[in-house]
Amino acid sequence: MDWKIELIPVPVTDVDRAKAFYQKVGFNADHDHRVHESLRFVQLTPPGSACSIVIGDGITDKTPGTQEIQVVVADAAAARRQLLDAGVEASEVDPQPWGTFVYFRDPDGNSWSLQAIESRPNG
Predict the structure, then answer these.
(1) Cα–Cα distance between 108 and 62 in angstroms, integer?
(2) What is the pTM of this model?
(3) Whole-angstrom Cα distance, residue 96 to residue 41?
(4) Which of 19, 24, 49, 64 falls between 20 and 30 A from 107, CA-CA?
């Protein structure tokens, strides 16, 4: 039986600002629905990903800025250029024995690691 991660909550203080940021980075806005007064559900998916993030009102009790997410990319330097071109601050490329990394944060301080690796054991 496969177990696939589908959705990761990302705590934010301003839903519209966060949605605009993630769209600027290249995420697709799949869904934006106010279920009721205290629940707004906004699903965004990174390009090529089977897993999405969810931001909104009433989504999580986590403190904004505390979420950490790692994403695999084909080319860390190209991903960095994409972030910089979108006006997002990104770290220099960080080569490690297990992959090459680039780091950035969303407007609330949630941290993202982009990892480029030569091969993955599961594809």
Answers:
(1) 12
(2) 0.92
(3) 37
(4) 49
